# Entry
Amino acid sequence: MTSETSTAHFPQQVGIDAYGNGGFRFADMSHKGSLLCLPGGMTGWPVASVAELTLESLQPVLDQADRLDVLLIGLGADITAIDPAIRQAFRDRKIIIEATQTGGAVRTYNVLLAEERAVGAALIAVENAR
# Structure
């Protein structure tokens, strides 16, 4: 990932219009790479695989934990187990984690955001939309 990707920021939380081809479209813009969707805005996220999913990589989410009830984690194309320490850290902050394929996470995020729920998403970019 380039430093540009990790520092990209859109100042408000919005729905995602499309995903695939290694990125996401939202707010009439295109973002290449993975993405954090948080109450503080949409931010590039330098995580390209589940192996890079750590408490450290999720620190921006933990920093806004008091503004979240649910975190959707888009794991890419496949569903795999995430580190129990990550689940515990969010449980300790009373945040529900739902980890699934990126496409499912995007769709659920959009629904919960439209319902004005306190939702966030950590989405690993995928090449092919499902």
User: Anything to note?
Assistant: The chain has four helices and nine strands.
